[in-house]
Amino acid sequence: MSRLEMSEPLESFVDELKQYFEVCDEINKVVRRENQALRSADPKTVYEFQESRKELLERLTGAQMRLGVLKTSWLRVPASTRAQRPDIGTLIRQTLDLIMKTIVLDRENEQLLLRHRMVPTKHIPPAGRQNPHIVAKMYKDSRNS
């Protein structure tokens, strides 16, 4: 593979990764606004974020699919070439950190929705999700049997 062929997938991967980060950042902003609404005097305003959340989740799904394809190209690039692009590793770490922050904040939002009794009964998460150690115990028990 020539240097030009290697640089093109790298640049394509970087562009896709940046787009993925932007989608994650938009989702994080929506989740933060939801959190602010849930902590306000009128938490019912949180419903206005549902449509933007749905659209962003669709974009996130598309970005994930494209990144999956590009990941294969990235892994084919020699390690020495990948080492020359530490910016890619940094962007990946930033994206993962942002995703984790968003997940934690979204869980907090779920708890606030439950506290405000704004979740229909059929949408209340199962006990295993509220107590992740139960899932781990079930997994461990199933492996021991």
Structural features, described:
By secondary structure, the chain is mainly alpha-helical. It has one domain: Methane Monooxygenase Hydroxylase, Chain G, domain 1 (Up-down Bundle), CATH 1.20.58. Helices cover 79% and strands 0% of the residues. It is built from 6 helices and no strands. Helix 1 (3-38) runs antiparallel to helix 2 (50-76) and helix 1 (3-38) runs parallel beside helix 4 (86-115).
Form type? elongated
Based on CA atoms alone, the radius of gyration comes out at 20 Å
CATH class: Mainly Alpha
User: Helix- and strand-based class?
Assistant: mainly alpha
| CATH-defined topology | Methane Monooxygenase Hydroxylase, Chain G, domain 1
Number of helices, counting only DSSP H or I runs of 4 residues or more: 6
Low-confidence stretches: 1-5
- Topology pattern, helix = H, strand = E: HHHHHH
**On the 0-100 scale, what is the average pLDDT?**
77
Count of domains: 1
Largest sheet: none
CATH architecture group name: Up-down Bundle
Helix content: over 70%
- Number of E strands: 0
